[in-house]
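Q:
My hope is that you can spare some time for a protein that puzzles me. I hope you can help me see how the letters and the tokens relate. Thank you; the sequence and its tokens follow:
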Amino acid sequence: MSANISKLKLAIQPAREQLLSHKVYSQINDLQGLQKFASYHVFAVWDFMSLLKSLQIGLTSVSLPWLPVGSANTRYLINEIVTGEESDVDEQGNRISHFELYKQAMEQMGASTKAIEALIKALIDGQNIFTAIESVQIPQNIKSFLAFTFDIAINAPLHVKAAVFTFGREDLIPDMFSQLLNKIYAEHPERVSIFKYYIERHIEVDGGHHSLLAMEMVQELCGNDALKWEEAVAASIKSLKMRSLLWDAVKN
């Protein structure tokens, strides 16, 4: 790990610790609590994909005619992450995106998918992303969370996008959450098996290999530019605070 990455992680640690200790985790102690959590958290699973694709658009060639963009190393890093997020495997080994897997988990447990489906329909019907966000019946905290994500995805420079993706959108899974999930699974294995698989897969893939690739991407994009590192730190902290807003919506 580079010295700059270590400094960034140290700078964001207070915001990260605050998120890890959020009261939302203690409230997910039964199936009903998990259903509510999933119905809100799904927006973070979904908009994460757009943040990821904005990096792919900026770091690779996705238009015709093809032209080499940036360094081959960053192209490799982002393309490998996209493959894993967009085309992973479910419990049976079938290819599926992490968002679609999460939605399957919601359907199995009986969590409402009405709000996320309404947002996707609004976008399919041609609404602007920010208009679509405002049109959906969800708490204002979630709307603010989504608006921040898409502002970063659309307007931020690549090194800021990469930092937010890597350090500000880390799905923190404290031991408490894992223990509570195991308890709920023991009580309702037929309702929670897909969600349990999703969480385990997320820890295995996103928390391990993808995390290392993403940190390498941030290092490549920030290089030795002190200002870029400062911007990366500030954006990561802001993103963690926005995630706390999302958790507040679940808690209330």
About this structure: The chain has twelve helices and two strands. The mean pLDDT is 93. Strands lie at 88-89, 95-96.
